[in-house]
Amino acid sequence: QVQLVESGGGLVQAGGSLRLSCAASGRIFSNYAMDWFRQAPGKEREFVASISGSGGSIIYADSVKGRFTISRDNAKDTLYLRMNSLKPEDTAVYYCAQRSTSYVSRTANYDYWGQGTQVTVSS
To answer: For the residues of the chain, what is the DSSP string, one character each?
Structure first.
């Protein structure tokens, strides 16, 4: 069974940086595109970024372009999200998700989700 486990969340000041990790297991990691989502209390889940199986194609939400960097290390079966210039509006639970395909597209189905990691940005 596939497992996705997020880590790296915490409390940071506005303007600070944080790196999230998502460790995957259960199937061939490089065959599947991976995404980051986030959800604040009482709000809908929001797309953050996506990366293709090979790492060659990347999509970012407009709200994080220029500040966040998604990457993956297929040798370690791990997905990353580097977050710089953090704002209080970035406060949310961050989830990683594995797509059904190796490529990225504007619409997608997700086979697996992690439990999430809390990111809190103080003002």
So the answer is: --EEEEE--EEEETT--EEEEEEEESS-GGGS-EEEEEE-TTS--EEEEEE-TTS--EEE-TTTTTTEEEEEETTTTEEEEEE-S--GGG-EEEEEEEESSSS--SS--EEEE---EEEEEE-
∠ CA 55-59-61 to the nearest 5 degrees?
145
Q: How many percent of the chain have pLDDT more than 70?
A: 100
Which residues lie below 8 Å from residue 66, measured CB to CB, with a gap of 6+?
none
- Six-digit token string for 29: 């990691």
Residue 49 · residue 55 · CB < 8 Å: no
Say which residue the tokens 């595109």 belong to.
33
pLDDT at 28 exceeding the cut of 90 = yes
